[in-house]
Amino acid sequence: MIAIAQEFSPRYERHRDDLVSVDVSGLTRLLGPARTIGEDIRREAAARGVRAHVAVAGTRMAALLLALAKPGLTIVAPGDEAGALAPLPLALLERIADAVGADPCVRPGPTRGSAPTSSSAISAVKHWGLKTLGELAALPTADLVSRLGRSAMAWQAIARGEDIRPLVPMLEEERFESSLDLEWPIADLEPLSFVLTRLLEPLSTRLERRDRGAAVLHVLLRLVTRETVARRLELPTPMRDVRALRTLALLALEAHPAEAAFDRVTVVIDPTPGRVVQHTLYTRAQPTPEQLSTLLARLGALMGKDRYGAPVAVDAHRPGVFAMTAFQTEVAQGKTNVAQGFSPAAARTAKAVRHDRENVAQHSALSASSAASAFDRPEPLALSLEPCVVSAVRRCRQPVPARVAVIDGRPVRVTADRRGFSGGAVTHCAGPWRTSGEWWLERAGGSGEAGRPDGAASVSSTHQTYPPHLAHPVPWNRDEWDLSLSDGAVYRVFRDRDTNSWFIDAVVD
Length: 509
Hints:
Helix 3 crosses helix 5 (91-100) and helix 9 crosses helix 10. The chain has helices spanning 2-6, 34-47, 60-69, 81-85, 91-100, 102-105, 118-127, 133-137, 141-148, 151-159, 189-209, 242-255, 289-303, 330-339, 344-372, and strands spanning 12-16, 19-22, 54-56, 73-75, 176-186, 212-223, 228-239, 262-273, 310-313, 322-325, 393-407, 410-415, 424-437, 476-485, 490-496, 501-508. 33% of the residues lie in helices and 26% in strands. The protein is of the alpha+beta class.
C-alpha cells in the first residue's frame, strides 16, 4: 500500500497495513479529474496484485469512511461529504477508531471524570434509536456534548466528514550508510584511517543537518576471501565528530584485527537525536564526550576492558573490596537527575541557601541572647570558628609487609622496610578487631597457597571484586589494630592469623 501511495504523492499517511490516505490535491493538472486519479490508483493496485477500495473526497476523514464502507471506486465532490456519509451505518465509527486510533485522532478537552470510549458512545446513541451517521450528525451539538462529553463533538465531526487533524505525512527511514570499493586490498590501519575519514565526513554532515548523532557505529570489512568482518561500537553519548568516530573505529579494529586484507569498507550509523548541553557558570569545565570516549577506548586497548572505570562500593564484608563501573560524564548524570526531577545545580544552591539560613538563624539567636544579657555580662560573646577536623584513611592497595613486636598480646613497636613508611614505638593502640570470611570456600590450587604473603594480602584488586590472579575468592582471617607511633604516624595494621604475618593496611591522616 505504501508503494502504491508513493507512485502518486509524497504526502501519504499509513494508518494500518491495509489502509493509507494520500494527498492528491495537486494531481489534477497532471492526471486529470478526480475520477481519472482514482482509476489510475486502482489500476496501479491491480498491477501489483492488490484489490483496493478507493475513495476520493474533499476531506481525508470522508475518504477514509467511504473506502471502509464501499467497495470499488467512490468519488465525492468537494462539499458533498456530509450527504455521502449520511446513509452509512454507525458501526463505521468503531472501524475508523480502530483504523486511525480514537485518542490520537481526537484530542478532547478537559472533562469531569473519564471520557467514554467509542464503543460505549455508539451503544449509547444506538439506545437512542440512531442508526446512521447522518442521524448522529443532525443532533444538537450542545446536548450531545452534555451527555457524552467533549469527545462526542469529535465523533459528530467525523460523522459529518470533517477532518479533526491534518494529514501527517510519513517520512522514509533515512539510512546513514556509506561504502567504498578499494582499487587494491589493504591490511594496515594507517591507510584505513584515510578511508574511514572519507566515509565518515559526509555522514557527519548529514547527521548535523538533521540534528542527529551516532548511537552505534558499524564498520564492515569485506575480506579478499569474500568473508565479511563486522565491528560494532556502542557510543556512550550521541556524537558526530569525525576524528572521534575514526579513532574509536581504529582502536576497535586494532583490538580485534581482521584475519586477511580487505577490499571494501562500509560504515553504517544508527542515528539518535542529538544531545543538548547547557553548561553552568559555577562548575568546572568537563571533558567532552568525544574526548572521554577516545580516552577510554585507548585505555581499553592498552590495559584491557575490565581494568579501567569508576570505583564503587560493594556490599560485602571483605576489607577493601570494590568494583569497577563505566565512567559517566557530568552531562549524562545531569540527564539522569533531571529525568528524575532533580538538578545537581539546584541541589547545591538549595544546600548553600539552607546552610546560610542556618548560620543566620544561629547568629541571630546568639545576638538576641547577647543583647538580653548585655547588662549582666559586659564581655563580648566570642564565636568559635575552628573547623571540624575529620580523619581520613588512605588504604594501601597492596598491603605493606611490616615487622611488629608484640608484648602481652599487644603491639609495642612497628618497623617497615618500604620507603615512606616510618617506624617506631607504639604510643597508643586500639584493637584488635577480628574479621574473617569465605573460609567455607576452597581456592583453586589447594588451601595451602592462601598462606603466601603475596596472596595473603586479602584485599581486592584494582578492577575486580577479587584479585585477578585468583580463580576463586580467597578466605581471610585477620586481626586489625590502629596504632599511633612515636614519630606521629598513625597506621592501621593487621595480622594474618593463618601465616602470623603483619601488614600495614592503611595510613590515617
